[in-house]
Amino acid sequence: MCPNSPDNHVLLRAARCILGLPADKTSKREVQTEMNFAAKLRARRAEARNRKAVARAIDMATTPSMRHELMAIAQAQVTTLR
Fold first, then answer.
1. pTM of the entire structure?
2. Span 16-48, pLDDT tens digits
3. CA–CA separation, 65 and 63 (whole Å)
């Protein structure tokens, strides 16, 4: 990664925030980028938790019909393909 790339810049700002170091002068755009970055992280973690919970529920289903029903519900709720 290039030292001046935008991704590296966001990571450095996030690290400064986590470590409690004083922030440099920030523009509104930079603050928005940091907020978007944090929101994306939270959304990704929530999505992973939901996937694990659904997988656990499917594994623990007592009957095959319950398992198929849970799988159908999970497939219907998928909004994006990666």
1. 0.49
2. 656 555 555 666 666 667 678 888 888 899 989
3. 5
